[in-house]
Amino acid sequence: MTLLRLAWRSLLNRRSTVLLTVFTIGLSIALLVMVEQLRTDVRQGFYRSVSGTDLIVGARTAPVQLLLNTVFGIGTPGNSISHESLEHIEAQRMVEWTIPLLIGDSHRGERVIGTTGAFFEHYRYADRQPLELAAGETFTDLFDVVIGHQVARRFGYSVGDEIHLAHGGGNVSLHEHEEHPFTVRGVLEPTGTPVDRNLYIPMNAYGVIHVGWESGVHRPGSGLDADEAREHAHEHEPEEISAVLVGLTAPAAVFGLQRSLNDYEAEPLTAVMPGITLQQLWRLTGVAELVLRAVAILVVITGLLGMVTVLLTTLNERRREMAILRANGARAWQIAALLVFEAGLIVLGGLVLGIAMALGAIIALGPWLLDVFGLAVGVTAPEPWQWAVLGGIFLVGLLVALVPAIMAYRRTLADGMQVRL
Amino acid sequence: MNAVLAIDSLRFAWPGEDRPVLDIDAFSVAAGEKVFLHGPSGSGKSTLLAAVGALVVPQSGRIELCGSDLSTLSRGGRDRFRADHLGVIFQQFNLLPWLDVTANVTLPCRFSRVRARRAGNAEAAARQLLSAMDLEESLWQRRADTLSVGQQQRVAAARALIGQPELVLADEPTSALDADRRDRFLDLLFERVEVAGSALLFVSHDLALGARFDRVVELPEINRAGVAA
Known about the structure:
The complex is a heterodimer.
Chain A: H1 2-13, H2 15-49, E1 55-59, H3 63-72, E2 81-82, H4 83-90, E3 95-107, E4 110-115, H5 117-122, E5 124-125, E6 129-130, E7 133-136, E8 144-147, H6 149-155, E9 162-163, E10 182-188, E11 199-202, H7 203-209, H8 226-231, E12 240-241, E13 243-248, H9 254-262, E14 269-272, H10 274-317, H11 319-327, H12 332-373, H13 384-400, H14 402-415
Parallel strand pairs in A: 4-11, 8-10
Antiparallel strand pairs in A: 1-13, 1-14, 2-12, 3-4, 3-13, 5-6, 7-10, 8-11, 9-10
Chain B: E1 3-12, E2 22-30, E3 34-38, H1 45-52, E4 60-65, E5 68-69, H2 75-85, E6 86-89, H3 101-111, H4 113-119, H5 122-132, H6 149-161, E7 167-171, H7 179-196, E8 199-204, E9 215-218, H8 219-222
Parallel strand pairs in B: 3-8, 3-9, 6-7, 7-8
Antiparallel strand pairs in B: 1-2, 1-4, 4-5
Helix pairs in contact in B: 3-4, 3-5, 3-6, 5-6, 6-7
């Protein structure tokens, strides 16, 4: 098409300004795409972690808090529930499996979770994938620890290494369970969930290492030695656990069970459905997301306005060009169309550049995000509505270009063929 | 009838002004005729060219171009008409600086199917005209703004002539040239106008050029609106 080729040549002529404009729009598009992509990835990341869990049961607390604390290690651990409650849950019809979780200790800032072999057997992530071992095996001894992929990677641990756990959370461990070193027995494959950053020990070991710690600090001379502990491990089955993940034989049973657990009289419990609780969480974070989106949209608008400014300022110096075009047969609307085409090419360039920059940044930052935040980001094809937004931006770009285009149209009509400088 | 351009009782005033700039009873240019239109500045030369070019619409009177009354045409129709039947050369800065020389010459063929059809292969026609206008082949792919003023005027002439328009309007095309180059330019322009069979309406204040034309018309004599005070 003639006009499009002319528009292209005209842009090439002003390539420095045009490139800057394309870059400005590109940056704004990149921001928008990244915000959207990260938003989606964060949400998916959360869903990944609870894909196989029907209910999470803990002490009476806010559902979002229970979910964040037990699965994602966000916030401080709440109260515990009694072992009897766990047994009560296990005894329910339709309950297929339970994974008890004990939370509270840490190792070099990462969470140490006490659980049972059921965890490795029943826990599911992403598309209901089971956990796989990258090396070693699951619990064979009381003082075994199975570590997440990132724990192994960051601290350089491999099967057979001995590590010490710290009492309580945090990075600086003032009180270590020095008397009970643990042996790395297995390393899990990466999952892109908080599992990668956790260390798992047998639930009973949790009980054992806390003998003598009843007051919160270690009472000198108390505690069990390792062999003694192994022998009496079953006696140290912890009396309290932090939370239970529950899987059901029939998903439809979840509502009934949730209600009955929430009404459980022996102990105040909170049972939450992870998916629904995440929905509640999104409602909370929705405002922040909205603000982020609004900022991104505003930046895009700024970029487009910048383009119009550039087109408007060139309008004066291009008055002669327009007169030449007109004298050689260009109709007034064709001159207006020329400007719209130029804007279209600029916005298109900005869109392509922006998407490329956003995807490039996501690919480049991906490993770091996974490392620091345990956030699995990936390049996913934009959803139809996201394409629609990008297409909408293109259209808005053409639309705002109508301002200089209409001005050029009027001017060419008024100027006619007279070229005045 | 073989008049390319026929003006009858033309009156034109710029919007918002009472005094007309043009008040011409009759003026015509025959097919293939080379007419020199002489007039001092302010005598309405540019306005007359704009009217002939159908860029402004007179308040009364007729302008017939190639047998069509311009006032009966719609705005788009006038644009198409201009593209099809007129070649234009300005005083200077005729070319789009960001196009190469050849693309500048073929420009009218992009906007007019009639001109494109008559030119046949636009690129070939452009090359032929460029060499006829004495422009070396090494210049053809250069950006237009890298050429000298004289070269640019010859490119503009080649462009005005591509696709053999019935009428070529030239608005002081030699005023930026020195005497030697001016004569050379006129030689080439005349030659090509004759080959194309186009009429030429050449506007200038430099009466010395007039002798070479078929006819010299003094604009103040035909324009009763007179010289601006």
